[in-house]
Design a protein that fits this description.
Residues 1-11, 13-37 and 463-468 have low confidence and may be disordered. This protein is an alpha/beta fold. The strands form four sheets. Strands 1, 2, 3, 11, 12, 13, 14 and 20 form an eight-stranded mixed beta sheet that branches. The protein contains 16 helices and 20 strands. A hairpin with a 2-residue loop joins strand 8 and strand 9 (129-130). It has helices spanning 2-7, 14-17, 49-60, 103-107, 133-156, 161-164, 173-185, 194-198, 213-220, 261-266, 277-285, 339-346, 350-365, 368-371, 399-404, 428-446, and strands at residues 20-21, 40-45, 64-68, 80-81, 89-90, 96-97, 115-117, 123-126, 129-130, 206-209, 234-236, 241-245, 248-257, 270-271, 291-298, 310-313, 322-324, 332-338, 373-378, 413-415. Bound molecules: flavin-adenine dinucleotide. Flavin-adenine dinucleotide is lined by residues 45-51, 68-71, 76-78, 92-95, 97, 231-232, 258-260, 263, 268-269, 291-293, 379, 381, 386-387, 390-391, 417-418, 426-429, 431.
């Protein structure tokens, strides 16, 4: 029974155990207000999963929109790098959770993209050896017990997940804490709301995209016009919506804002008409956790692992990580660091992160491993000014904050993004659904779908009868 449960536990599956575009409308900075005739229907801020989903929906309804993106590329936290290693390396999201119901896999084109199931089991390393079957069962039983305790505690009220843990988790405590907290949600259990945690939708199975999750998302954005390198600096929603950018002002009837909660809370985008204090407070409660990949390209397969093997360490403290080995059959291995330890590590520099990965692997697989590293880089999402972290996770008492993000500002501005989803938060699928939901709300406000403008069909010129 336990082995069966064990074989189904993957990243974040722990709960299973228990249109058209318009050009920028540049308005003079000072002077009498210009007529608003040139406004567009919707302005979308941010071209990550949520922004792309919203744009597709609005384009399909034949409404005009302008989508602006601060970076010089689309994708946000779901982007694939193929240059560094010559093989796809997902800098952000990589796991496709619940592929059978994931909104993105449903849209995946049949050609050029391969989605395949993630291995159904995981491994645990104890010092220099693999855990035995009986030890794995013990670990998974402990994990199930810890999860159930959090579920039970959440039924009585909210509090930190850590407080709900049974006191007798023994020498698996540190590993279970890492898997449920930093690895699954980007935050330590002490900083996670039990109620928010148990609402995570059941994620029994996972899949990977051989070309990269970011490549898959980019394919879904094909043909959608985006104004790149165009950051929103301020938003006014007093009379319609006006978004200021260094390239000019966009005037729109409605807006969809998809930037991360940490970007919103940082004040990098000013709200000039009035401060949406409730939203900014919600963003602070839903602050982003820390999660980074340290990518090591090996010569050969010094860890002796199979394609996409997931390995945890039986750890004794928080200085640990997870290994995702031989990504999609390549010699690329990802060392995943997260939570407060990951945050402290990434606050230093890439070299320190790579050094940690080498030392940590040497402890688990022997010192020869370090010599087999050909190239290495590390992501540092907390330092990226356009995201400032990895994924939102509510602190204790923070559940209501997600609902605040579902409410529009003056029926003009809607928020979308992974944080604005009550059960799929922290995922690309959640961001996508929230973008679609915001687009639907905007379309209702605009009066619905507009019929496509069909060019008036002129009758074909009558052929002259040739008189001979
Ligand atoms: C390391 C890591 C690993 C992850 N692993 C997984 C995983 O395995 N599976 C999974 O499902 N999810 C995972 N996630 C989470 C997932 O990546 C996110 O939930 C999702 O991509 C968020 O999409 P979004 O559209 O809400 O936000 P974003 O992707 O952040 O999009 C917002 C966009 O707004 C832009 N922007 C910011 N400021 C401005 C501005 N002022 N003006 C205009 N544009 C602006 C940003 O550049 C960005 O492109 C991971 C995240 C990270 C960081």
């Amino acid at each position: 029974m336990l082995s069966k449960t064990m074989s189904r536990l993957n990243r974040r599956s722990f709960l299973a155990a228990s249109a058209a575009s318009a050009a920028l409308v540049v308005r003079p900075a000072i002077g009498a207000p210009t007529p608003r005739a040139t406004e567009t229907d919707v302005v979308i801020v941010g071209a990550g999963a949520a922004g792309i989903a919203a744009a597709r929906r609005i384009a399909a309804a034949n409404r005009h929109f302008v989508m602006i993106e601060a970076a010089d590329h689309i994708g946000g936290r779901c982007i694939t790098d193929t240059r560094t290693f010559g093989v796809p390396f997902d800098l952000g999201a990589h796991w496709i959770h619940s592929p059978d119901v994931n909104p993105i896999t449903k849209l995946t084109p049949r050609r050029g993209i391969e989605i395949y199931p993630a291995p159904a089991s995981q491994k645990v390393r104890i010092g220099l050896r693999n855990a035995r079957e009986s030890e794995l069962e013990d670990f998974l039983a402990t994990q199930v017990r810890a999860t159930r305790a959090i579920v039970d505690a959440a039924r009585k009220g909210d509090g930190p997940c850590a407080q709900a843990l049974p006191s007798d988790l023994g020498d698996w405590r540190s590993t279970v804490e890492f898997v449920l907290g930093p690895f699954a949600c980007g935050k330590d259990l002490a900083r996670l709301s039990a109620v928010d945690f148990v609402r995570i939708a059941d994620r029994r199975a996972d899949a990977f995209c051989r070309q990269g999750f970011g490549a898959l998302l980019a394919g879904l954005a094909a043909g959608i016009p985006v104004q790149l390198s165009t950051p929103a600096t301020s938003i006014d929603f007093g009379r319609g919506v006006e978004v200021q950018t260094p390239k000019g002002t966009i005037v729109a009837r409605t807006g969809i804002v998809t930037v991360s909660t940490n970007v919103l809370a940082s004040g990098r985008i000013r709200f000039t008409s009035e401060s949406p204090q409730r939203v900014l407070d919600a963003c602070a409660t839903l602050s982003l956790g820390s999660y980074d990949h340290i990518a090591l390209e090996f010569s050969g397969n010094p860890l002796g692992l199979e394609s996409d093997d997931l390995v945890f360490e039986k750890s004794t403290d928080t200085h640990t990580g997870a290994i995702l080995a031989n990504v999609s059959g390549t010699s690329l291995c990802l060392i995943e660091v997260a939570g407060s330890f990951g945050r402290d590590l990434s606050a230093q520099d890439q070299a320190t992160m790579v050094n940690f990965a080498g030392e940590w692997l040497a402890k688990l697989y022997g010192t020869d491993v370090k010599r087999a590293v050909k190239r290495a880089i590390a992501t540092r999402w907390n330092a990226d000014p356009l995201t400032l972290g990895a994924m939102s996770a509510a602190g204790p008492g923070g559940l209501a904050a997600r609902r605040v993000l579902l409410e529009p500002l003056r029926d003009s501005v809607w928020f979308a993004g992974e944080a604005a989803h009550e059960t799929l938060w922290g995922t690309v699928g959640g961001a996508w659904e929230s973008g679609e939901r915001a687009a639907e709300a905007v379309l209702r406000r605009l009066g619905g779908v507009r019929e496509p403008v069909v060019e008036e069909q002129k009758p074909p010129p009558r052929k002259r009868k040739v008189v001979r």
